[in-house]
Amino acid sequence: MHSCSQYNTNYTRRDFLSKTTLGLGALTLGSLLQPVGIGAQSSMISPLGTFTPEPHFPPKIKRVIYLFQSGAPSQVDLFDYKPGLRKYQGQDLPDSVRQGQRLTGMSAGQKRLPVASSPYAFKQHGQSGAWMSELLPHTAGIADELCFIKSMYTEAINHDPAVTFIQTGSQQPGRPSIGSWISYGLGSDNENLPAFCVLLSQGVGGGGQPLYSRLWGNGFLPSHHQGVQFRAGKDAVLYLGNPEGLSPAARKNQLEHLRRLQEDQYDRFQDPEITAKIAQYEMAFRMQTSVPEVMDLQEEPDYTFDLYGPDSRTPGTYAANCLLARRLVEKGVKFIQLYHRGWDHHGALPQQLPILTRQTDQPSAALVKDLKQRGLLDDTLVIWGGEFGRTTYSQGKLTDKSFGRDHHPRCYTLWMAGGGVKKGLTYGQTDDFSYNIVQNPVHIHDFQATLMHLLGLDHERLVFKFQGRRFRLTDVHGKVVRDVLS
Fold it and tell me: Checking DSSP bridges between strand 335-341 and strand 196-202, what pairing results, if any?
């Protein structure tokens, strides 16, 4: 007898009543209480215990590419031009500027906090007149496509909580990442690829702050909403291939039997995670064909590699990942997260920062140009930025040839390009020391609320009930920054 049929014949009358209660009764109660989640306008509870993903209102964009610069790039040396700092070079940062702000353990013991002006030349670019450092010539070439926010700020002063905060909305590990929330709220546009893909690259010297899979994890959301990491090399996605000696037909047959068993199990226990496992197994099977196809760059013409730079021919580099992000966008992937490590410049900044910008400047600009020429930029949002900023004062000894910058949560810069945001806009302003915000502050939760709004999601309505509380990406506050919306 078939295993599934045998499983069903073992039910008693008590099993039948229990199964009926957990089935139709649970659906009826769920439609009233919405115990799994409250997401879209119509949060209909489906037979698998989930609501139908859809936007709350017409979206301005369909997808996001988030170029996360892990380690915190120095806004003082890249975007936030402060020529007045030169006259304070080597002098102590005024107490009136610092205002008693706590310092990290790395500079708290310093007897002096000497101001270090940027050694790089700045110029205005495009019709917008955006200021940019000489280290970013390619980004300067797309200045009129960019929307700068120079008044970002965060509550975290160290890397791990700060990265966790901007990626999940909380400094405490365990919450769902942005990509997972978007996958949960909007679903996927391609049944053969995940809605949320992750790419990692390494900056100068092989170091940098560690990146944990929980940063693209699903937290308490169903597990099929977690980010799927794509790696360079033979196996782009781990454990995707069939075991040796198992044919695709045999694997398909195996998954069909497994699905039927799991559906029986779901009918009995009504655990939504069972349906998530079914979805993951079936997605993995389809990805056996779709992933090699999207990872194969041989069909790309030479002029595309020339656009992204020489590193784009080397799998796993930032440039190659930017090119891969464009290919994933073309396949309908909704949220693509790139992490590039190496921006943590506590010392030797003049030696290391130019290397990082050479790795990232051309590919970042190329991605925006490539999307635009393919007609994809109007409904895609590209984001570039880190977890916090860098101090105006030098960490450690300030010399004519070298210095470092410590963590600075009070202000930093990120840029966006694409659908839904104003082109050629510089929003927010810092003081003369790039230390405090003096105009239009933007909190991490404001940024997250704005991102969700562009995708057609109300950040206050996209919630998930877990352990008796309704959680959301922006926790208990956050507002859409409407001044940057087009």
Answer: parallel
Amino acid occupying residue 210: P
The DSSP-derived string for 67-94 is EEEET---HHHHT---GGGGGGTTSBPP
CA contacts within 13 A on the Cβ side of 293: 10
Question: What is the tens place of the pLDDT at every residue in 149-191?
Answer: 999 999 999 999 999 999 999 999 999 999 999 999 999 888 8
Q: What is the pLDDT of residue 24?
A: 41
Which of the four pLDDT bands, split at 50, 70 and 90, describes residue 242? low
Topology of the domain comprising 34-484: Alkaline Phosphatase, subunit A (3.40.720)
Beta bridge partners of 385: 68
Q: Extract the tokens encoding 411.
A: 């202000």
Domains of the chain: which residue ranges? 34-484
The answer on pLDDT for 391 being more than 50 is yes
At 304 the three-state DSSP class reads: helix
Residue 459 has pLDDT above 80, yes or no: yes
Q: Are 409 and 357 in contact (CB under 8 A)?
A: no
Q: Report the alpha-carbon distance of residue 134 to residue 48 in Å, rounded.
A: 55
Collapsing DSSP to helix, strand or coil, 382 comes out as strand
The first and second tokens of residue 88, run together, are 């304070």
Cα separation, 184 vs 376, whole angstroms: 23
Judge contact between 36 and 354, C-beta under 8 A: no
Type of residue numbered 132: M
What is the spatial distance between Cα 16 and Cα 13, in angstroms, rounded to a whole number?
5
Structural Rg of the chain based on CA atoms = 25
Token pair for 247: 């044919």
CA 139 to chain centre: 20
Instruction: Tell whether the torsion through CA atoms of 170, 172, 178 and 180 is positive or negative.
Output: negative
For the segment 3-40, what is each residue's pLDDT rounded down to a tens digit? 444 444 454 555 544 444 444 443 333 333 333 343 44
Output the pLDDT for position 247.
74
pLDDT in tens, 47-106: 334 567 899 999 999 999 999 999 999 999 999 999 999 999 999 999 999 998 889 999
H helices of 331-442, in order, are 349-373
Distance of alpha carbon 201 from alpha carbon 212, whole angstroms:
13
DSSP-assigned letters across all residues of 237-282: STT-SPPTT--HHHHHHHHHHHHHHHHHHHHHH--HHHHHHHHHHH
Question: Helices 159-168 and 444-454, interaxial angle, to 10°?
Answer: 30
